[in-house]
Write the structure tokens for this entry.
Amino acid sequence: MAGIVAWGCIHAVGAWRLNHDPRRMLVVLACVAAFLGFWWAMLAARRRRLAR
């Protein structure tokens, strides 16, 4: 997950450098956070399912 965060930060900086609009960077970071949240939720659901 740390690799995904690093990848997202690199892309966020690149998006910001395109025209120095901070909203672009926030959109990229929000998408990375949403992806990681979904991934964590799926891992938690799998963990609960396997525990039964």
Q: What stands out?
A: The mean pLDDT is 96. The radius of gyration is 15 Å. The chain has two helices and no strands.
